[in-house]
## 1
Amino acid sequence: MKNIKDIKKKAALGLSLTLALGLLAGCGAGSISLGGGAAASAPAGSESAPLFGGSSVSVSASKLAETELDGIACLTVSSGGSYTLSGVYEDQMILVDAKGQNVELVLDGLTLSNSKGPAIYVRAAKTVTITLAPGSVNSLSDGGSYDIEDDDSSLDGCVFSKADLELAGSGSVQISGNYKHGIVSKDTLTVESGSWQISSVKTGVQGKDSIDVNGGSLLIAAGTNGMASDGALSVNGGSVNVSQSKEGLEAAVVNISGGETYIDASDDGINASDPDSSSGKGLGFGVMSPAGGSSSCAINISGGRLYVASGGDGIDSNGSIDISGGEIYVDGPVSNGDQAVDWQTAGNVTGGTMIATGSAGMASNVTSSEGQGTVFIGLSGEAGKEIALLDVSGSVIASFTPSKSYQCVLITSPQLRTGASYSVTVGGEEAASFTMESLRQNVNAGGMGSFGGKTPMGGGSQMPWGQDGSGAGSQRPGSKGQQNDGTSGAAPRLPEGSEQTPEGQQGEGGLTPPEQQEGSGQTPRFPGGKSQRPRINSQSDTI
């Protein structure tokens, strides 16, 4: 045990913690302990007790105790309740050890760093909610290496929870995962609200069982995965902006039904892969499934707006891809070993609008398109020139300006119907015209060879089309200057000294996220500027 005087010296300005007694249903009064000393009880009838040389803790029938874990001074929450934390707190850790109980941690102007382990460690609880107080600005960071070991837990995140974790509130927080990950839940993780800016050496947000984003704003700069789950990863609302990553979203099943999602990845943008592949457990993500794909892997897009910029596959499933709604724009790969949209078992379209550009070597049309048309066009183009799909009257159905050169375009829209004629323009000039003879149509613009890929319609030869995937415009989208909370500060960057920087993405001063849309907080801005953002028709609002 450390002397309490030593622990007092560790606090730069101190920590103020308020126990709100309007606790969660069924919970009793909160109990607190602080690293390294004998337990002490608050005087009967007192409102507060001195802590850390002048700061105070508001209490009611609660005890204060000084403890430590592996030499780290801890503030331990051992009973269910709502705890409000503020102030500057150095080389300390919030430890939640309240088995079977609900705990809320309200961050209200908290700066908390721990050079030896996680900033927040949930050892035991039923559910823990981290709430960002209205208007508050908070900061959490861990160290570049951990000295802490606890039971059978391999602690590896700035916020690390062995219980269900919920993120909520209306303030903002910057989380720096200097060791490995930003936020980790070994159970389920749910994002309801709040502004969460996360930089991490490895994964930004990890929920082992599942991740559900229902609202709020996530801005993530990650060395490996932006967000990852062994189970399902669902974006139902809010804003998800993975501005730097190796792979953007990765899970066995990825569902996108709402919100706005921006992904910039040096490898796959969205990847549905089985964490327990054919060779058994422990292989992790990125391992190919057995030949023929996996029935447990799926990407389902039914709503929302999605933009993917990828160095590898844009949208990649080791099982199926089903698109039934939403707006999808894929700024795909230039290498012929990858493609904008890739599946193992089936690629099905029943709704939604999509424009996907990329290399041609492995590309093909979808396997099924019902209720609307999907057209696969062999068409080479340069970065920065708008692609537009027009109907017979010249009205724009859908358009997109890619940031890289491309060799083919995959388009689907509810306005693509059999028997109707359409044209495609690039930079305002007509590049292809065709009549939809079926709901899956292949068009070869400019006599560029046969169609190749997995299971194309109308041909079967592999095709480089005279292209090697190189050329101008292969730089990844993104611009400097985005702020953390819409008011001040710099956007998240990978921790200094990280060796996990995504290949091909580092620029001057580190990695930077896409430009922020004016007046929109953290809504991602699509590449090319306001006049060139994706739109679904000529009258619609742009993203």
Note: The two ends are 56 Å apart (CA to CA).
## 2
Amino acid sequence: MPPLRRIAVIAIALAVALAALVATRQRSTVRAAPGASMAPRVVPDLFPAGPCRHSDASLCENPRFTTFELRIPLEHDWVAGGSVAVYEGFVEGTRVVAGDLLRYRWPPMQTLDGTAPNFVTARAASGPALDVLPRGLPGAFDGVIVRSAASLAAGDCVIVTFGDRSQGSPGYRIPDIGISSDLQIEEDADGDGRYAMSSHPAPRLRVSGTRVDSFDVIAPATPVGGADGSVVRLTVRAIEGGTGPLDNRWLVQSFAGRVVFRSTDPRATLPAPVQFEPRDRGVRVVEATLRSPGIHRIAAEIEGSPGVFGRSNPIVVGRPRAPHLFFGQLHNHSAVGGHSTQTSRFALAFASRASGLDFVAISEHCRERTFDWSRLLELADRYDEPGRFVTFPAYEWTNASEGHRHVVFRDTASACSFCERVGGDRSCVVATSLAFLEQRVRGLPALLIVHHPAWHLEGFTWGSELDDANQRLVEIYSWHGASEYFDNPLVFHGQSSDQWPAAAGTFVRDAIAQGYRFGIVADADNHLAMPGTSTGADLGDGVRYSWNGVMAVAADDLSRGSIWDGLWARRTYGTTGARILLDVRVGHAAMGEETTSSGPPRVRVRAFGVEPIQDVTVLRDGTEEIARLSGGAGRFDATVVDDGAAPGQTHAYTVRVQQADGQTAWSSPIWVTIP
């Protein structure tokens, strides 16, 4: 893992008083960008007057730890024994849920050792010290109970200090990843053990970058053109962190600075300079118009500091007709399905407003106790905006002996859950077998997408049919790693022990060689409720790559029906996250299609990279490499003639494109029959 980078904890309270200190991760050199906020010193003034008035935040000395206070105005008079409960949780619909894996959350609080990290204390503004007890089991609890031995009056203030350093604690340990968490507050004024949720909105803790290293500039790949050119909607994000597969990247949510734009299109109408403010949380959406036909890019930089910049993905201008190319993710999680942080509502709002993705699904683990299918259906419809942002209903099905699939439906009207509870049984109805799941979805507009098949997590089977009516796609890459072939450069969690052995036949190349008819996609498997981000995690048992994969689909327009048709037809490819433009054809047949060839198949590969293309590999039937071509430029265009293809057979041709920075794209097969 790379050295720890500088991040900040920003705590925002709406009506609840919350003051936060900012932690700075030190580097050997510091390059300040003009206009950038190096260390936000003031938390927004949303505190009530009187004893809960906040003071300015200040810098912490230790780069790994911080100290912050939660100030809770009492809503009722307390008797002796009155208390408040403070814990990490998320309001989803009418209930509070929480992710059940601490590794994706803030470190657990502790109340026993004043010299150890994460020590929590509390006092009343009127003077008395308060008892702090764990809410749960020591070492694993996700909150605290603060109790008073004396009566307290309404309007007094309970001040909870996280990372209290007065007894020698280094402070509260900051997560290494850019997560967001809510703190729920419940009050028991009568001391009878019956808690009521506070009427104040939940305060939110965010991990943020503190220095802008670059910008993400995300644009549609093939915007629709008009008489005056193509209007391009740009998502611009201020980022701290590197660009390698193990370099975590943080949104710089406190960034304040002026950003200017330039383009390779000399006729472009670009946005006026944009002034980022802390309220933007490091993200702005602007529009540009490109007029010159061809492939262009738009760059953003801090005014007066051209070294801090970012370039967009390639944008195709002047495309006269469909299909268009859209990028999305269908494998994402939140606390509703466990193993995650934040709500599904938060995840969809982030994807819609801050990710630049064209389409998304939140595919929760259906066997988790927090799974709520009706809520997921409601949110999928609420956030669906045809022409701008498309959502699909989905969930994840798992089986200990046959592997994992996420089930994606065309729309909510046709979506059925095969994971409803049966009596007191908490397992899915279909958890018995993959064959049962295949039978239940047959004839329905439902995609079964195989994911991380090479991860030696449990048992695995590809399924009962080589060309299953519903199991049409396989995820070749996610933040866990790549399932392309044994010991590929992005091995699971950075360690070979986490993958099946080479002879197991669980790699995507093996499936194609065995005759399975899969289109290829990549995805995130994002467990931070932030689809479209680039951030991983060191969970102790291996890394999660900061490259979160995306899938590309060729479709007529940005609507559920059109995107679905492209997915169903396997007109897809996947990348490690870079929005590489890739077009592979044999004759007139495109990716995912079938064709015949009277002579040696001619595989044409055209690609346009985000960075220079290093090499292109063409494979026959999954495992037979028939050509490896060197790149060196941003564009690639070559035709490979396969003189070794056997007549009387059907062959599958796939292409692997790798950029100089390691970012990779994988095409779906084209199946070619040679009479």
Note: Residues 344-354 form the longest helix (11 residues).
## 3
Amino acid sequence: MNGPSLRAKFAGTHALLLALSTLLITLVSQHLVDRELLRQSETATANVHHLVGQFVQAAYDKLQDDRQTALDTRRNELRQLSGLVRTTLEEFRRQVAWGRLTPAQAQQAALELLRKLRFGNHDYFFAYDRELTAIAHPDPSFEGRNLLDYRDPDGRPVLQDIRRIALEEGEGFLVYRWKRLQDEDAREKLGYVFHDVAWDWILGTGVYIDDIEKQMHERLAQMRERLRVILEDVSATSGSAFVILDLAGEPLIAPAASKNALPETVLHALAPDLLLHLPHEANPRPQRIELEVAAPGRGQERWLFHVSRFTPLGWVIVSAQPLAALEAPGDALALRQLLTNGLILLVGLLLASVLVRWMLRPFVTLAEHARALPEHDFVLPVAQQDRLRALRERYRDEAGQLADAFLRLEEALQQHLDSLTRTTAAKERIESELRIAHEIQMGILPKLYPAFPDRQEFDIFATLTPAREVGGDLYDFFFIDEHRFCFVIGDVSGKGVPAAFFMAVTKTLFKAVAEGEQTPGQWLTRVNRDLATDNEACMFVTLFCGVLDTRDGCIDYACAGHNPPLIHGKDSTLRWVDVPHQPAAGAMDGIEYQTCQLLLAQGERLVMYTDGITEAMNATGALYGEARLTSRLAHTPPGDARALALALLEDVHTHEAGAEPADDLTLMVLYYRGPTA
């Protein structure tokens, strides 16, 4: 099925670019208008918040000044009354000095006077001794009681504060809460106390100051009413609705309803979200909050709120404005621009269609030529090639360059097809030869198991997995005589065909020298000498070989730079075979390899491997390593040689997790069951 023509694509692309440009210009213009209107609105709102804050601060400062003045007046009155009491006490003491009264009579008369003394709003004097035992008090239940631990309704030890001020400072004022006689509620009281040193009395009095607070509340209510009128005027002119809430979200000052006002129920529901954005301290600029609001009769709308705090009174100033009102001018401008640009787009598309048709004529010819190429095996008739040459001569732009490229492409394609045919044939021949080499290499290794079913003294299993078609690892095992069993494992340096040849030569040499009566060390000495002779490629092979005496489990072994094997016990305990540190075979001549000896106990396994096992990598490059090798073996229960080898090989493949193998994987496990009876 044919797709859209290039002409249609050009026209469509042109239309798309124009449409996108139109849309982008419209959106940017709308955004700029909305942003400017929003900036102006926020500036005006911030100014109103600032002015309201200044008004509230000035009124609050005036209230505080008036309150302080009233308190100062009360303090002066208390100090003057206490001065009269002090004079009276001195008069009683003069009566004692003149002999008219005894000290006890004078103190008793003074206490009776204090009990009866009343002033102001039924306020009184009280007296305590140094230990805060009430000796004169208007509440008869307090008389004679020690009130050291007495606390006011707020849990404050008021009398301890009174004693401290009187005894340490001589006199002073304090504010506390106390219940009036015959009254249920505690109220704030301004107290004055002093120490009468002559009789060691603590005396004091106080006045309730709730009348001052009541007057302050009345003035605060007047201020709120004036502020409500101001906010109504501001809301009518600025387009925003202003309200004042308390910290519980209850409206304190709400102007009369307007088109932008939110009902008090909606404001109360939104209060937690609004108060959440309040700073902990007073902020000179209001906090901006945008919320989805569902108002009765208006549906779901986005509203812009600005919130600021007046900390002394716990007031929150909130302004609210629907974003639709701010965005309306930008939306109207966007619609006008969209209609205008749409008309321009339509005219541009008509002109572009004509121009594109004219510009694409040479490309239509090139398209026909390209469709014909496969039908003629990429070799077109001379007439069609002449048409391309004409296009190349006529047009000096991209059309001419494309025609020239077609001509060159045909030439290059023909050459490439010839080369590809030859390369494919050669690759298939090499792959076939590598498959045959793999089969030959695997064929020279023992691969039938159990290898010696008639021998009950031991069991052996080996496996080799090349990293490529052919590899450089090797293993072999065979009997030298009736009781001596020889085995070898090795790893040739490098990979691929050279390593495979070197592996075959090594295996052949080892089997040839191992048929004699010499020791494993002497065998490796001879193999090293033969491999090092004329070894211009400087290849080498690591080898571990041994001879098991099936009668007692004794193994004579030698090592040429190979990984030390592990002995896996009947209880899965592990120990490394101690191998001499001698170089790999083939690297240099003249090395005498040492023969060592170990004893396999009945039920033990000798685990031999190449470094492809421990250096197997996963996708992240992490090695399998000796730690995981020993851990896996330690957790593998006793079993035959095959089960142990395959369990270990499966764990290596699990570690690789599908990663490309980096080296040949070779394992050989020799299981010594013990001598036959």
Note: The first strand starts at residue 118 and ends at 119.
